[in-house]
Amino acid sequence: MIIKKTDEVPLQDVKMEGAKDVKVRVVLGPADGAPTFAMRIFELAPGGHTPFHAHSFEHEAVILEGNIAAGTEDGDKPLQIGDVLLVEPDEKHNFKNLSDTEPAKFMCLVPIEYQK
Q1: Topology of 6-115 in CATH?
Q2: Taking the complete model, does pTM exceed 0.90, yes or no?
Q3: Distances from the Cα of 107 to the Cαs of 28, 33, 74, in angstroms?
């Protein structure tokens, strides 16, 4: 069993094309020997967002802090703290911090192969 504090995991810039003012902590992943999933916590600066993208696998997310919307091909879906999402395979999506002044956080799980 591995137990650690999320705020002790290094915060890294998200360098994917289309990302704006986003950082991530890989709280459990390949470095921990996780066999199936990687758990990541994303921090969005005010006005920040992840890239609008799709991938061949599902992933799950939970909103932890802030004023976040999930961007979809049908428009933005406002979310609340505690909301959980299932993003289906090949579904275009992103996460946006709607606040101009406050940061936002969400956690998501992806297959370990995607995190490597």
Answers
A1: Jelly Rolls (2.60.120)
A2: yes
A3: 11, 19, 23
Distance CA(57)–CA(79), nearest Å, equals 22
Contacts of 67 (CB under 8 A, 6+ apart): 97, 98, 99, 102, 104
With CA atoms as reference, report the closest residue to 72 among 57, 60, 58, 54: 54
Question: pLDDT by residue (tens digit) across 23-42?
Answer: 999 999 999 999 999 999 99
State how far the alpha carbon of 39 is from the alpha carbons of 69, 77, 108, in Å: 20, 23, 6
Task: List, as one string, the DSSP characters of 31-89.
Answer: GGT-SSEEEEEEEEEEEEE---B--SS-EEEEEEES-EEEEETTEEEE--TT-EEEEPT
Tokens read off for 113? 């192969």
Reduced to 3 states (helix: H, G, I; strand: E, B; else coil), residue 6 is: helix
Calculate Rg over the CA atoms of the chain: 14
Q: For 51-86, how does the pLDDT look when each residue is reduced to its tens digit (9 = 90+)?
A: 999 999 999 999 999 999 999 999 999 999 999 999
